Amino acid sequence: MSRKKLILLLSIAVIVAVFNFWQAPPPYPKFDPSDKLPSYTQSSFKQYVDDTYQWLMDNRHFQTSNKNEELALVMPKEWHPEKSNGQAVLLVHGLGDSPYSFVDVAEHLVSKGYLVRTILLPGHSSRPADLALPDYRDWQAVVEHHVQLLQAKQLDVWLGGYSTGANLVTSYASTDEKIQGLLLFAPAFKPINPLTGLAKFAKYIVNWGTYRQENNYLRYNSFAMGGVDKYHESTVWVNETLASKLYSKPVFMILSEADGTIDSEYAYQQFSQRMPNNDSHLVWLGEMERADSRSTTYSMRLPDLRVTTGSHMAMLYSPDNAEYGQNPKQILCLSKDKALCKSEEVWFAERGYQDANKVSARTSYNPHFSDSMLLMDGVMTRNAD
Question: Most buried residue, 34, 48, 320, 338, by CB count within 10 Å?
Answer without folding.
Answer: 48
